[in-house]
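Q: Given only this backbone (166 positions), what sequence would you predict?
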């Protein structure tokens, strides 16, 4: 068989594979559309609960930070919530670039046309660059599983009821 004949056979196999792929993709899309239509109330409930969770997490984080501000020694204001304090560094890029140019022999990686942000970040973390203001940046983290920490009232929709819908 010549190369041209082999190429024609390979193209035929490719065409068949693409046609099969298109049929399967369409079948999947049809099934997904049918599923979404059949389970629209359940899908809407998931969206509503996701919004409630996001809102409740924001309230918990805000209150945790307020508690931390009142007592900065306590980084666990309640079980299930932890305060992690990072450092926020603020600087004027123009002034830091000028400083870097003055110190190019010591820090050659800083000078191209602009600052190498990775090297700069390492330097300002080490407090080697003047004019960088460091401030605490507390963040509240919430445990994923709160069932061990809190008494949670039964949700409005029970899991058993949800499985009946499916």
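A: Predicted residues:
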């Amino acid at each position: 068989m010549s190369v041209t004949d082999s190429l024609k056979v390979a193209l035929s196999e490719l065409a068949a594979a693409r046609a099969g792929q298109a049929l399967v993709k369409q079948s999947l899309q049809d099934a997904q559309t049918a599923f979404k239509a059949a389970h629209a109330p359940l899908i809407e409930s998931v969206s509503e609960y996701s919004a409630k969770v996001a809102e409740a997490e924001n309230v918990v984080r805000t209150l945790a930070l307020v508690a931390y501000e009142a007592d900065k020694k306590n980084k666990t204001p309640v079980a299930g919530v932890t305060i992690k304090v990072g450092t926020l560094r603020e600087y004027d890029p123009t002034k830091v670039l000028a400083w870097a140019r003055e110190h190019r022999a010591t820090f050659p990686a800083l000078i191209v046309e602009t600052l190498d942000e990775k090297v700069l970040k390492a330097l300002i973390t080490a407090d080697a660059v003047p004019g960088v203001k460091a401030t605490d940046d507390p963040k509240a983290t919430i445990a994923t599983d709160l069932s061990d920490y809190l008494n949670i009232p039964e949700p409005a929709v029970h899991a058993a009821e949800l499985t009946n819908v499916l």
